[in-house]
Amino acid sequence: MEMTPTAHNGANKGEIAKTVLMPGDPLRAKYIAETYLENPVKVTSVRNMLGFTGTYKGKELSVMGGGMGMPSMGIYSYELYHFYDVDQIIRIGSAGALQDHVKLMDVVIAMGACTDSNYAYQYGLPGTFAPTADYELLVKAVKAAEKQGTKVVVGNVLSSDIFYHHDSGVNDKWRSMGVLAVEMETAALYMNAAAAGKKALCLLTISDLIYGEEKLSALERQLGFGKMMEIALEL
Fold first, then answer.
1. pLDDT digit string (tens) for 186-195?
2. Is 208 annotated in the active site?
3. Do the domain assignments include residue 197?
4. Is 208 annotated as a binding residue?
5. In total, how many domains does the chain have?
6. Which residue is catalytic, options 85, 116, 161, 208?
7. Which positions in this protein are listed as binding phosphate (predicted)?
């Protein structure tokens, strides 16, 4: 009997934990599962968007890739919340720093997510929705970072639909408003969580400097975000 709820996820109901860590890169999900989880089991590999469930310090935990961009995050997080009864998703991703005080490999916690996306159109709201993190998860993340001895920067990020922007001055405008960093998924995750009455938090490691030359390689992005991963695991 077919028990898979969606066309995008091969897991059966009950095979995904209530808490899911969600990197964009499915290979990072594989790395986290093999490095940190006890007895990880691959529960989905549809479209090579790998997902695993195991335990961490005795508690069941899943980790699954979410892909690039808000359409991809929108699909996977929606399905996890609505079809797999997930309670909270912690995105662990990379971002480009927009502010000079945000350095390479710093961990940014997204308190809110600005966006140039039309994702919120679907809700028919009579104004502009401000996507924000779950406060309880945010406080826990800050405390976990302090215990770990890792400095974190908390504030607003930008979730953009556009990686190669036609307007060469667009980053200057967001930078002038104090936005810390730019990435491509958080706003959709926070909106899906709000609409579902669930929890979400986004942790980002700075992989490149928009106003500098430093940046991480693809392999460093895949394997080198240990501090961020360990903060997320404590949530």
1. 999 999 999 9
2. yes
3. yes
4. yes
5. 1
6. 208
7. 24, 28, 47, 91-94
